[in-house]
């Protein structure tokens, strides 16, 4: 059974991810047999595996995700309300960045790196939006469970 990953882009349209087709060995028929079909899909805590369960045959498929960039990208909102990429690599982070927060005054950005248990700290340049790395602090679990952050 061939399945292809789809993502919801910022304009709320489903688009195909090139090269994302994977075989789940769940049989497959035309018309489809929904008794044996993918049931739940999610990412592992570290974000390095896509996990898929299949109804009726009980395997759990783990698809390794190799395109982990450990970066923060920057965007702007255009006049039509669409996101426009400014810089694909606005800053490098620690391992497996999962969440970020900006202070209410727009001067600092913090990000959680769940694979190494750190929080990265960046100053936001007020003239051009560049991110200036200030350092990181550790002490969070480095096992993929550290998620969520807020700034004030």
Tell me what the structure shows.
Helices cover 0% and strands 46% of the residues. Strand 11 and strand 12 form a beta hairpin. The chain is globular and about 60 Å long. The chain has a four-stranded antiparallel sheet with strand order 10-11-12-13, with no helix packed on it. A three-stranded antiparallel sheet has the order 5-6-7, with no helix packed on it. It has a two-stranded antiparallel sheet with strand order 1-4. It has no helices and 13 strands. The protein is mainly beta. It has two domains: 63 residues, no CATH class; 45 residues.
Which class do the helix and strand fractions yield? mainly beta
Molecular shape: globular
Biggest sheet: strand arrangement = 10-11-12-13
Mean pLDDT: 76
Secondary-structure map with pairings?
Elements: E1 2-3, E2 6-8, E3 14-16, E4 22-23, E5 38-43, E6 49-54, E7 60-64, E8 71-77, E9 83-92, E10 97-102, E11 108-113, E12 118-124, E13 131-137
Antiparallel strand pairs: 1-4, 2-3, 5-6, 6-7, 8-9, 10-11, 11-12, 12-13
